[in-house]
Amino acid sequence: FKYFSEFVAKYGGKIVGKARSPINNVDANGKHFTADMIAGGNANGDGFESYQYIKTKGQPPVDKVSYYRYYQPWGWLVGTGVYLDDMAAENAASTWHQVGQGLVIAALLIVAAIVLGRTIALPIKRMTQVMRDIAAGRFSAEVTGANRRDEMGEMARAVEVFRDNGLKVAQLTEAEKTTALARAEERNAMMRDLKAAFGDVVD
């Protein structure tokens, strides 16, 4: 590996400056990061280097991580770096974006739960009360939802049949009671007539 004393700094595809003897670059902690990258390229071919670098003139240095790779055909060490505060800002923006998406999804789930509650839970609750009324003999209970084309509609139509059959049985039972009372009255009248007739004969 050959080291040249001049290197070219590029940003966004454009040459923004040149420098001499970068091998002597030292960060705020006294770390010879350029020399370390050259040594790493010679030893391993590529690697990462962490150091501090002045991002804005007049401002304190910030943490930076660079990736470097030794390009053997040319004998060059090629590298690129990123400032950790830029990555933190990008991560924060991504996190807030994900939080916003999560809030939107949560709102949609709440709306869906409300809609399901109104279309399923409340009709089931009303249907349960109707079935209790019918079981208690209150056949005047109104069954709603029989015109629906889903499972709730099928349940409502089944409850209607159950209610109507219960009403018929109740009406039949009342008719039987009336008939039995009428027959008992007829028998009592017959017994009174027979008793009266028997008394006339004895006398």
Describe the structure.
The chain has 203 residues and is α+β, with helices and mostly antiparallel strands. 57% of the residues lie in helices and 19% in strands. It has three helices and five strands, in the order E-E-H-E-E-E-H-H. It has helices spanning 33-44, 84-135, 151-202; strands at residues 6-11, 14-20, 46-53, 62-71, 76-83. The strands form two sheets. Strands 3-4-5 form a three-stranded antiparallel sheet. Strands 1-2 form a two-stranded antiparallel ribbon. Strand 4 and strand 5 (76-83) form a beta hairpin. Helix 2 packs parallel to helix 3 (151-202). The radius of gyration is 48 Å and the shape is rod-shaped.
Salient structural properties:
203 residues, two-stranded antiparallel sheet, 57% helix
Outline the secondary-structure elements.
Elements (H helix, E strand, L loop, with lengths): L5 E6 L2 E7 L12 H12 L1 E8 L8 E10 L4 E8 H52 L15 H52 L1
Helix content range: 55-70%
Rg calculated over all Cα atoms:
48 Å
Largest β sheet strand count, sense and barrel closure = 3 strands, antiparallel
Strand content: 15-25%
Side-by-side strand order of the widest sheet: 3-4-5
Principal-axis shape: rod-shaped
> From N to C, what is the helix and strand string?
EEHEEEHH
Number of helices: 3
Q: What's the average pLDDT?
A: 78
Briefly characterize the structure.
The chain has about 200 residues and is an alpha+beta fold. The chain is about 55% helix and about 20% strand. Helix 2 packs parallel to helix 3.
